[in-house]
Amino acid sequence: MKIEAIVTDMDGTLLKRSGGEDHIGERTRRTLIAAQESGIRLILASGRPYGRLMRYAEALRMAEHGGWLIEVNGTALYDLAGRHREVLAQLYRSEIKELYTMLVKLEYEVCAYQDSALWSHIPKRLLAAKRAYKQAHGLPQDCPLTAGAFALVSDNRSGYPAQHEAQCWEDLPEQMNKLCVADSEERIASAMEMLDTHFHGRFWWGRTSANWLEIMPLHVNKAEGLKQTAARMGIDPSKIMAFGDGENDIGMLTLCGYGYAMGNALDSVKKVAYDVCVSNEEEGVAQIVEQVLRGKEL
């Protein structure tokens, strides 16, 4: 079957973390540009907002080839050629009042995100470990202690220049893109059990790494975002190849004709994938797309 589009997650999938900064490997960049030049459309699907995706889209020359962005796990779509952005859904403060209150009470680190701003609660029990991590990894003195999906402390001020404390739900703005929880693998599992007990059927949630849980409006996810994007592009999902590593990628991988889990993906993702490729650090996306360009049967 001819592949008409490729959709890929970013963190842990397309991006390499070696060298201290997230980046697209040169082999992957060349391969995806070649794929677009052959007529295959490219879609980036991420938990990031468009402001944190644009430099990668530019490096891949997506605008000139009719590429799209699926932002914040499907809360918004961005047509790069037409420079048109459509916000599909967001969380409201009133919706997450119970969530935020319960998570703070249970001493989880909680972050609420807008496009270029975040609000966070960091429990006292984590402060000493975070300060030690910050010093051990040579992070700037003024770096906030907020976690990231793959780090106990992550300096993400370039993507979220406005950062605030939110000790309770009243400190949050009226609208947010997503709510995230950071903790140990065991406590993240406990948080998911708690969510299923108290909020089943009200929100969507899933891990993007063993230590990072994302909570979204119930019907907002990458799969739904991809359905709408594919319809706008006039492409059947069965002719799309997908790549991902986190639980927020599962629906997208199973929707597409060829859904690949990265070698570094969570086991729950590998179980549902069409196949597993090598890790993001080994440029697994490039390896599979090169096979497509050579005409190899998948």
TrEMBL record:
A molecular-function term among this protein's GO annotations: phosphatase activity
InterPro entries named among the record's database cross-references: Cof, HAD-like_sf, HAD-SF_hydro_IIB, HAD_sf
Presence of the UniProt keyword Hydrolase in the record: yes
Keywords: Hydrolase
Keyword Metal-binding: no
Cellular component, GO annotation: cytosol
Coiled coil residues, start to end: none
PANTHER family: HAD SUPERFAMILY HYDROLASE-LIKE, TYPE 3, PHOSPHOSERINE PHOSPHATASE
UniProt xrefs under NCBIfam families: Cof-subfamily, HAD-SF-IIB
Protein name (Swiss-Prot/TrEMBL): Cof-type HAD-IIB family hydrolase
Organism: Candidatus Merdibacter merdavium
